[in-house]
Prior knowledge:
Elements: E1 73-78, H1 97-101, E2 108-110, E3 117-119, E4 122-127, E5 133-138, H2 152-162, H3 170-178, E6 180-187, E7 190-195, H4 202-206, H5 213-216, H6 223-226, E8 238-244, E9 248-253, E10 273-278, H7 282-290, E11 296-298, H8 302-305, H9 312-315, E12 319-325, E13 334-337, H10 347-355, H11 359-365, E14 372-373, H12 396-405, E15 409-410, E16 416-418, E17 421-422, E18 424-429, H13 435-447, E19 451-456, H14 459-467, E20 473-476, H15 486-490, H16 509-520, H17 524-541, E21 544-546, E22 548-549, E23 552-558, E24 561-562, E25 586-587, H18 589-601, E26 609-612
Helix pairs in contact: 10-12, 16-17
Amino acid sequence: xxxxxxxxxxxxxxxxxxxxxxxxxxxxxxxxxxxxxxxxxxxxxxxxxxxxxxxxxxxxxxxxxxxxxxxxxxxxxxxxxxxxxxxxxxxxxxxxxxxxxxxxxxxxxxxxxxxxxxxxxxxxxxxxxxxxxxxxxxxxxxxxxxxxxxxxxxxxxxxxxxxxxxxxxxxxxxxxxxxxxxxxxxxxxxxxxxxxxxxxxxxxxxxxxxxxxxxxxxxxxxxxxxxxxxxxxxxxxxxxxxxxxxxxxxxxxxxxxxxxxxxxxxxxxxxxxxxxxxxxxxxxxxxxxxxxxxxxxxxxxxxxxxxxxxxxxxxxxxxxxxxxxxxxxxxxxxxxxxxxxxxxxxxxxxxxxxxxxxxxxxxxxxxxxxxxxxxxxxxxxxxxxxxxxxxxxxxxxxxxxxxxxxxxxxxxxxxxxxxxxxxxxxxxxxxxxxxxxxxxxxxxxxxxxxxxxxxxxxxxxxxxxxxxxxxxxxxxxxxxxxxxxxxxxxxxxxxxxxxxxxxxxxxxxxxxxxxxxxxxxxxxxxxxxxxxxxxxxxxxxxxxxxxxxxxxxxxxxxxxxxxxxxxxxxxxxxxxxxxxxxxxxxxxxxxxxxxxxxxxxxxxxxxxxxxxxxxx
Length: 616
C-alpha cells in the first residue's frame, strides 16, 4: 500500500501476490475438489522447537498528516469494467485489479524510503535457524471485512488455494509449490512460513497474505465461474459496496477498520467512498473532470499536461496542478513481439523492427523531450539493473543490413518482401492517447520498409487479445516488483499458452537455465550477475523493444483535494489515481463548498502549481 507496499507486486497491469480463494474435498455445488493430502497441507498445531528473537518496527518516519479529515466521496474513472473481480485465474490481470489487491494486506510491508520491514497483519517476526523459515505473531485484532478474525488457518488456506489446479493460474501454482514449502500453525495467532531454499530478502517470499477460509470453505472445479463476481472479504481499509456492470464500482471505507489507529495506517484512507465510473474515452473523461464530476486527472503525459492544462478552471484557480519527481522502478513500457508469429521467427527481422522505431522523433514532437528511453526490462532496480544494455537506435541503414542478410529485398512499394511475403505486421494498443505516437512509428517504419498496421481496441479487448497471444506486436507495460521476477515473463513454461505473462512466447533453453539459477541462488552477488545475464539474453532475443519512461508524475486536481507537503516516497508514482494504495489525500468539504460557490459568483483564486522535488 504505497510505502506499505504489499509484499508481492508483479504486474499490469501487474501481478501482486494477493489471494482470494480456497479448496477442499467437496464443494458446495457438488463438484469434486482436491484433498488436503494431495496439496500437502496440515492444519494441526505444532510446537515451536527453537528459541526466537522477536522483531518489530514502530520507528520509521510517516507521511500521513494529522490535519487529514475523514469524509466525502472521491470520484475517479476507469476506461474499462473488469472482466472479473477475481485476482487470480483467467482475465484477472485487468486494469482495475489493483483496487482489489490494494485492499488486502500481507504479513509484512516495507518503508519505501528506508526499505525497512514494517508490521502489517503480523505484529512481530523472527528468523528460524535454518535460514528458510520466518515466524510471525499475528495481530489478534485483525479482522476480515465481514467481522471474522484473521487466523493461522487463513494462511494455510492460502497454500490450499494457490496450489490448486482449479484456479487455472500456472504462475501461482508454480510459485506456491516451488518457492514456499509449507505454512505451519503454532497456535491461532502464531505461524511460520518456510521457503524451499535459503534466499536473500527471505521476507519477500514468505510474508504472504491470508485467504478467508470461512468464506470459501471448499475449492472446486467451477471456481473460475462461480466466484467471477464474488465480493470477497478483505483485510484492508475499503470494501466494494455496490457495482453496476459496465458503469461503475463503489467502494466504502470501513468506519471500524481494525488497523485505522496503527502507526503506519493512521490518518490515511480518509474519504468515505471511492466511486470509479467507467468512461471508455479519455477525452470524454477529461470533460467530466472539467465539470467537477471527477476529482483528479492523471496529467503525467505531455499531451495532457500541456494541451489540456489551460482554460478557466485553471486560470481561475479552481483546479491546481502538482508535479512529483520520483526514483521509482520503471514500468516496462514497450513493444512486445509475438515470437510464435512466423515473421518474427527470424531474429534479424526482430532487430530490423527495433531499428525502425524512431523514439527520438516521438519524444521531440510529442513528448517535448521530457521522456527518457528505457534500456532494459528491469530499469530502476539499482544493482539488479544491467547498466551495459542500451536500446537499439533508429537506423534505416541497420534495418537494411539485417533484412538483406536474411534475403529480403524492397518491393515496388518500398516494403521488404521475400517469397511473396511482405514485412507487414499489426501493432495492437488499447489507449487512444497513444495514437499520435504509433502514427509516427508507422510513418518512420514505412521509411525503413516495414508496414505497421495499427489496431486500436478498447482496453479490455486489447488486453484479452494479448493474453490469448493473438497479437503480432503489443504496445503495453507491466508494472514492477520489489525485485526482478523473470520466470513469469520469459520462462518457456509460460510460452505458447494463454493467460500467462510471457506474451512474447519466448522459448529459450538458455534463458530457462539462467532463470532457474537466479531463482535458486541464495547469494545476492550471484543473483545480480544472473539477472544481468537474463537482461542481456532478452536484449539478444530482440523480443521486446523498450520505449519511454518519465522521472516524475503529474496530476490535475480540484482544489478541495488536500494532501501533505510531501505526499509520498521515492517510489511514489501517483497521489490520487489509486486511492487505496497511498491514501494520503483527503477532501476538505469547506473548501469544496467555497470553490463551488465561487464558480457561481465569479470569485477566483490564485492558480497553484506544486512542484515536489525532494526525490529529484
